[in-house]
Structures are given as C-alpha cells and as structure tokens.
Design a protein that fits this description.
The protein has about 180 residues and is an alpha/beta fold. It has a single domain, classed as Hexapeptide repeat proteins (UDP N-Acetylglucosamine Acyltransferase, domain 1, 3 Solenoid). It is built from two helices and 15 strands. Helix 1 packs antiparallel against helix 2. The termini are far apart.
Length: about 180
C-alpha cells in the first residue's frame, strides 16, 4: 500500500511542477486552458467538468481544493489550497482569498514574530460571481447566487442572492427583490 501512495504522491508532484513551470504561464486561449484543466484534474482533491483555470492562478499545492462543474479560478488569482468552490462560479482577475491571518494581540513582540491564526477555509457555493480585485478574508462563506462587486473586501457573510460591495463589505441589495416591470 505504501508504494501506491508514493506513486500517487509522485504523480501529483509531477503535475504540480508541470502546472507551475509551464501551464500557469501559457496564454488564455482555449487549448492552453484545457492544458491547465488537465493538470489541475490531477492536482486538486476534486475537479468538476469544464473547469477553467485562468493564466497566472496560484493555489499552493492544491491538495484540498474542490471545484464544481463550470467554475473558474480567475486570471492571476491567489487562493489557499483548502478552497471549496461550487458549480457555475465566475471569478474575475486578481482575486485574493485568505484562509488565515497574522496574530497581533501582543504589543511587546513584533507582529511578524507572533505567528499565524488558525486556518479558516473559504467556501463558495453555487452560481456566484466574484468581481475583479476582490479580497476575501478567512472563514467566509459566499452563499448561492451572490455577487461580490469588484474591489470589495469581503469580511463577513451575507444571505443567499446578495449583491455585496465596498470596504468593509456591505449589502447593496438582494437579487431576490421583486423586479418592477414598466
């Protein structure tokens, strides 16, 4: 059994090296997207069908990432290796998702020497649109049907079908509000 585990580990390492050395830097055209997808299917814990990994996406070792069908990691995004993404999730460029922060509770020790907080994974449910340059703080759960406006610093959770924006994040409106027809 140890040999089988070593082979799987070696295979993941091969695809991780292939992704970071070549695939990550290739242009955004379809053949290169398919190549990145092929690499990530061998890296991620779970990778649905028609997943789009855009150019420049960084995800650590990707070992605990789950991606649902028809979802994407945006161009130049930076996400932790314990991210959960549902189906039909759109992510704009330069999104940063954090799963931990620095400890800063003591003033007698420099913050850089106090270590990190406990990891708090981010969960993105289905049918979510995350705009460009969004910063998602540790432990957030983005609920089904939500839109996170570009430039938002998402620091708390909101109900399903919310449109959220700003720094700090605030509810702009619900997508479920009745639309008046003229």
């Amino acid at each position: 059994m140890k040999i089988k585990g070593d082979i799987i580990s070696l295979k993941k390492t091969f695809f991780l090296c292939l992704y970071y050395s070549i695939a990550r830097h290739l242009p955004s055209q379809t053949p290169f997207r398919k190549f990145r997808y092929w690499c990530c299917k061998h890296i991620f814990k779970s990778c649905g069908k028609n997943v789009n990994i855009e150019r420049g996406a960084y995800f650590g070792n990707g070992a605990h990432i789950t991606m649902g069908d028809y979802s994407c990691l945006g161009k130049n995004c930076w996400v932790p290796n314990n991210l959960t993404v549902g189906t039909e999730v759109m992510m704009g460029p330069n999104v940063t998702i954090l799963d931990r922060n620095h400890v800063f509770s003591r003033t007698d020790i420099p913050m850089g020497r106090q270590g990190d907080t406990e990891r708090k994974p981010v969960i993105i449910e289905n049918d979510v649109w995350i705009g460009c340059h969004v910063l998602i703080m540790p432990g957030r759960k983005i609920k089904t049907g939500s839109i996170i406006a570009g430039g938002c610093v998402l620091c708390k959770d909101f109900p399903e079908y919310s449109i959220v924006g700003g720094n700090p994040s605030k509810l702009i409106k619900s997508r479920k509000e009745e639309v008046k027809q003229e």
